[in-house]
What we know:
Layout: E1 29-30, E2 33-41, E3 51-55, E4 74-84, E5 92-97, E6 100-101, E7 103-108, E8 111-117, E9 123-126, E10 134-143, E11 170-171, E12 175-180, E13 185-193, E14 198-205, E15 210-215, E16 218-223, E17 227-230, E18 238-239, E19 242-243, E20 246-252, E21 255-261, E22 266-270, E23 276-280, E24 283-284, E25 287-292, H1 306-318, E26 323-326, H2 333-342, E27 345-349, H3 359-367, H4 386-403, E28 409-413, H5 424-434, E29 439-440, E30 454-458, E31 474-479, E32 483-484, E33 500-501, H6 505-519, H7 523-526, E34 530-532
Amino acid sequence: MESRFTKDVNRECPLSEYPRPQLVRKQWECLNGPWDYAILPEGEQVREWKRSILVPFSPETELSGVGRILQPDEVLWYHRTFDHFPIRKGDRTYLHFGAVDQRAVVLVNGKEAGSHRGGYTSFTLDITDLLKIGENHLMVKVQDFLDLEEDSRGKQSGKPGGIWYTPQSGIWQTVWMETVPEDHISSLRIEPDYDSECCRVTVVSNSDDTVVINMEGVSFVGRANKTMELRPEEFHPWSPEDPHLYRFTVRLGEDEVESYFGIRKFSVEKDDKGTPRLFLNGSPYFHNGLLDQGYWPDGLYTAPTDEAMIYDIEAMKAMGFNCLRKHIKIEPDRWYYHCDRLGMLVWQDMPSGGGTYSPLVTFTSVALSRFSLKDDNYRLFARESEDGREEYYRELNDMIAQLYNFVSIAVWVPFNEGWGQFDAAKAVDFIQQRDTSRTIDHASGWHDQHVGEIQSLHIYFKPVRYREDKYGRAVCLTEFGGITLGLEAHTFEAKESGYFRSKDLNTVLEDFRKIQKTDHPRVEERTGGCDLHAGQRCGRGSERGPHL
Length: 548
């Protein structure tokens, strides 16, 4: 079904904004737009291209122009041509993919350029040596095993319904290309230090050349692959109420990029009454947020336009929320950029994977009794495959590396409600080895392993009774509500999914207030400072997905 933004999609090159806001180059080429495609049984070769798909929308979406679900025993083939012109000796041309679900092999002029496993993280390929002057052919082979394999799949299901969503596959984020000098900037490592009122930046490069960073008219000189300290003349912390960003440029030889940072500090500390709470910039800060599913009526995982993403975040802010938990999904970089500049805290989930979940583990035993199981029983938690467990850590590592620099991300959430959970205490150690600047909600909802700084509660079916955590952690109510109301022309099927149903628009707000005041009285005063996900995206539908 369409959204209000469907009509605004540029059918020649949708989502054409520069896709990497923290490493911006002026010269680049967007490869979004109409591509050839074919869906064939495994092993069958493409003989001719007859049909067109609009990239970066998955074939399951309305916006793609296809409207077909890729099956696990099928292969989705993409094809397009692009022109390449002479470049200087030593220059390198890189091909970037925002995300391809689930496994991809990329070919340039009939030769394999590389492959990628994991449907949520970006990847880059050096295609310089495969290019020829003039017309070049780009092909992408995609397979998506969905829930038949243990790779991360999020809330996609081969049998969608209730809280499980329509599956999707293929290219679902921007494809783009850029040519850089032989000695160039590969990435930036940005580490704000609130206590020292500065930011430390490491310019990662294939060379150790001199680096010049310009910020607010001041130049900082250092060397690539060495940490540089940027100290603003005026210290201006970042917060949702005042999302101040420092803009800067980096030059290494002939290569130049634009970037930004914000200075803030996330922690769990005790307030003046001795209660552990979430802190922002040295003071208690209440996270009042929503469980953000990130599904669109017309594009599923992919927002139809950049303006649609902005509207979504601004609408949540206008409702009085300061936090979004990005639920079992990783968004394009531009979504986090908009959270950074608009001032919206983010709790970032790791997309779930594993085998077929047991309702005994994921719902019954814990939703009603709050009984937690030890998560080293791989069979019980649908994590028997050693390869699947290793893949989880590969994808978790890639997610942290990809999102580390974004200012707004306050909390990492490696597991949710026992969906493929395993060794959560080890996952906490794994994250802390890579990032000590953020808080970790190790097991959102249940199967608490008594580690980390947060006790995370999902309570839908009974009033909240606050109890101090005996392990000294901040107690956070991280899911509740689930009010649903289906409106004609705003839902794609008559069946509704939710935990409470409102009669009509007039009663939605009343029901929301009842949950806040009766079932969850004085949440902010009694808990560790987190009241996430009231109403499961209140005003946008139930867990079934957003309805515009």
